[in-house]
Every structure is written in C-alpha cells, then in structure tokens.
Write a structure and sequence with these properties.
The chain is of the alpha+beta class. The protein is built from 9 helices and 21 strands. The chain starts with 38 loop residues before the first strand and ends in a 12-residue tail after the last helix. One of its GO terms (cellular component) is membrane.
Length: 460
C-alpha cells in the first residue's frame, strides 16, 4: 500500500467508515479479535457467482484446516453475508451461529490436534466493505465492477476465513459473472468457460498467501501483454480499453524496475505480475499477491506516478512473499517498499537514495517524535511517518555497512524467508549474522526509540 498518510484503496470522495473490526481469537496485538489459534487453514476453495448490476453474490467456500489443539468449535471471521448452511466433509450439516463478524461452527465431535477438518460454507447476499478505523475494507463496488482491497482486516467481507497474516494458505477461486466483464484474481488463470451470457473464470494460487492479499477484480476490462524482456517476468496490464494506451505509457519503466529490483533484492518471487487500472479514481493504489491495483488518476507520467508503480511492485518481495506475522511489524512492508522508490530513482538516473533520505529526514525532524517504528500502534499503522522512517532506517543501515553487505543482506532476506512470515527480530538477527559491524545500537535507535536519529555521513 502506498500514499502520503495512506488510509485504504477507497474511491476518491467516498466516506471513511469508523470502528475497529470485530471477532475473537488472536491475530496479534493490534487486532486481537481477528483470527483463531485453534487451527491452521491449508486451503481455501471459493466458488463465487456475482451479479454486478444488483451487487448480488451467491457463493460456496470450502475451507480445509488442521486442528492445532482439541477442537469442538471452528470459529471463522465472516462479516455481513447470510450463511445458508455449513456442511462437514462427510455430508453432515452442522449447527452454526453467525453474529458480530464471527461464524461459529459446532463440530459433531471434538477432533484432536493434527486432525483435518473440511467445511463447506454456503452463503449469499450483497457484499460490502467491512468497517475499520482505516475506512471500508474488502469488497467494494466501482461505478461498473468490483475491487477487493482487504489490508489489513477486510477479507471477511467476502469469504469466511481465519483472518490473520501469519497463516498463509493456497487458494482456488472461481468467479462466474456476466460475459462483458473480465475477472482478475491471484495466481494463474486455469481456464475461462463461456455459457450463454455468463463466463466462469478459474484461478489457482499454489503459493501460500495471507487472507488479506486475496483479491478479485471485476470490470469491463481489456488485457494487454507488456514487455517483460529486461526483468524476465511476464507482465500484463488490465484496464478499460480507452485507458490502455495511457496506462501502458505510464508503466513504460516497469520492466526495468523488475530487472533492477531483481538485482538488488533477488529474483521476482512469483510467476507473473498484473497491474489492474480502474476507470474510477482511487485514493491510493494497493497491492495483492501477484497483482497491483491503480486508479486511472495514478497513470501519470511524473515522479509521483513512477514512485507509486515502484512501491507496489516492491511489495511483491516485501509484503507478499515475505509477509509480517504481526501487524506491528508493518515497517517490514512499507519501509522496504518506500526505500525501493528511492532505489529506483537512483538506479534510473534520477535523484540518489541519499538525496531522498536527507530530504525526508529533514521533514520528519519537524514532526512530533512520539511513535516507535517497530510498534507504531494501530492508529498509525499506515501513517506516512512509518513508511518514511522505515525507509530511513534501511538507508542508515546501508550507509553504516556499505552497499555490498547491505544488498547482500536484502538478497539473503528474500531468499531465506521466501513465501514465509517474518518479524523485525528475524531481520535484525539476519543482519547481525551477516555483517561485521555491530548494528545493535543502530537498530535500537531507529526501530525502538522515538527520537529521530541522525543519518550517518554519506560515503565520499
């Protein structure tokens, strides 16, 4: 996610909802009522039938999970849609209670830790974003279509899940909708079947993914293959036909970004990358696994447009392949993606990363010094202060240990934790094991102190 004081991928002009997400269980200290510790989901299979004009969804979610302790009730995060029935893998219908964004399913008998349970949830209704302190999250109608942007707690707006970032699962998503619409979801397109006035799109995501990164985009879109020669990654653009040329021009440097980031961070972590551009104006762009979503207003040929493209692309490494296990570690996503903007500027012949760092250091120094980067609190989770201080932390580390050691650490970081969940302790521990200089004091000041430290001198 990117933007100055980012707050969600709502359409420009839409009102922000209030109130934190509700649930039970544990998803870290910031959203303690999201998620459940009693099981781990291995796979979600979602079959969706959606009518754009009436905003009506009929759906079936098959959830394959493993108990981590004795389990008699399965508690799933699920918002406002109506549940018709829940069926166990052997065909038995189960008792359930659905209220306050929780679906509690009573098993016929307790299962022991290590046993598998497969639930089929049949549901329907008019999906809408879930409310949060950051605005509406999840399934949202466009002027003609749908976007899904769930970070951090919007996934239950459209499917029942264990909504916690430290539990990644594989996905199969099948969407049936009117044939004038194109569907984009995570993973590879396994097939499109046309029947009368409807089409069914099937996507398979074999790489484990956090629930908040699951997405469906529906719109009157055309698809354009982009050059991926420099970065060696298949790139695609999906947008309304009248937006394709402007979007292609705005994305003209994207292949070079993939190549640069591949050299600096390690190989691109997924099979392909798709950018979706809506006809609507959006407040900020947002990424999902293998996909990024931009509004038509973001497709501009200037530095601000270019940095947003670099930012969302960088999240494929930092956020999607390497995903925080606790939301307090958001700097591991946003600080790294913000620093990638500066690295792109430097690598493409623009301003150096050091120039950007010292500009932002001067700006942050004028602001209140009252937020701890490694634990900013839910109110400041997506504040631009966190993004920029996170990037400054990385620049300070780079200046302290030198480019060879710094980029070596980044490549080892993405290699060792590929497709895993990560923490601040994982990163600082890796750095300590890979560099000769003692950086404990640097991390203590930048990550756990409130006062903004001075940047080290740039090498001459």
């Amino acid at each position: 996610m990117s933007g100055e004081v980012a707050a969600g991928a709502r359409r420009a002009g839409s009102g922000a909802a209030s109130g934190a997400g509700a649930g039970s269980g544990s998803s870290g200290s910031y959203f303690p009522r999201r998620g459940d510790d009693g099981y781990v989901v291995e796979h979600y299979e979602l079959t969706l039938d959606y009518r754009v004009a009436s905003n009506r969804l009929s759906a079936v979610a098959v959830v394959r999970l493993w108990a981590t302790s004795a389990l008699s009730v399965v508690v799933l995060d699920f918002a406002d849609l109506r549940v018709d029935r829940v069926i166990l893998q052997d065909g038995r219908r189960l008792r359930f209670e659905h209220r306050k964004e929780k679906l509690r399913v009573v098993l016929p008998a307790a299962v022991a830790a290590g046993e598998q349970v497969v639930l089929e949830v049949v549901y329907r209704g008019a999906p809408r974003p879930t409310s949060s302190r950051y605005g509406g999250l999840g399934w949202e109608q466009l002027a003609d279509g749908v976007l899904v942007a769930s970070q951090p707690t919007g996934a239950p707006s459209w499917f029942p899940c264990n909504d916690r970032p430290d539990q990644k699962a594989t996905f199969r998503v099948q969407v049936t909708t009117a044939s004038q619409y194109r569907v984009v979801a995570n993973g590879r397109l396994a097939g499109v079947a046309h029947s009368g006035s409807s089409s069914t799109w099937t996507f398979v995501q074999d790489v484990p993914m956090a629930t908040y990164l699951a997405t469906v985009q529906i719109g009157p879109y055309a698809r354009l293959e982009l050059s991926g020669e420099a970065g060696g990654v298949p790139l695609a653009l999906v947008a309304p036909a009248r937006r394709l040329e402007a979007a292609r021009a705005a994305l003209g440097s994207q292949d070079a970004m993939v190549a640069l980031f591949g050299r600096l961070f390690g190989p691109y972590p997924f099979d392909a990358y798709t950018v979706v551009v809506t006809d609507d104006r959006l407040e900020i762009p947002v990424e999902a696994q293998g996909v990024s979503l931009f509004g038509s207003n973001h497709m501009v040929a200037d530095w601000d447009g270019e940095r947003l493209i670099a930012h969302e692309l960088a999240h494929q490494w930092f956020g999607n392949s390497l995903t925080l296990g606790d939301w307090r570690d958001i700097w591991l996503h946003e600080g790294f993606a913000c620093y990638a903007e500066w690295l792109w500027s430097e690598g493409s012949g623009g301003r150096s990363a050091d120039w950007h760092a010292r500009l932002w250091h001067e700006r942050l120094a004028r602001l209140p010094q009252d937020v701890v980067l490694a634990d900013p609190g839910p109110a400041d989770l997506f504040d631009d202060w966190v993004y920029k201080r996170g990037a400054l932390t990385l620049h300070a580390l780079r200046l302290s240990v030198g480019d060879e050691a710094f980029f070596g650490v980044l490549r080892e970081w993405t290699r060792r934790f590929r497709h895993s969940t990560v923490s601040t302790a994982d990163f600082t521990g890796l750095v300590a094991s890979r560099v000769e200089r003692d950086v404990a004091g640097l991390f203590q000041a930048w990550l756990f102190g409130t006062a903004l430290p001075e940047l080290p001198r740039a090498p001459r």
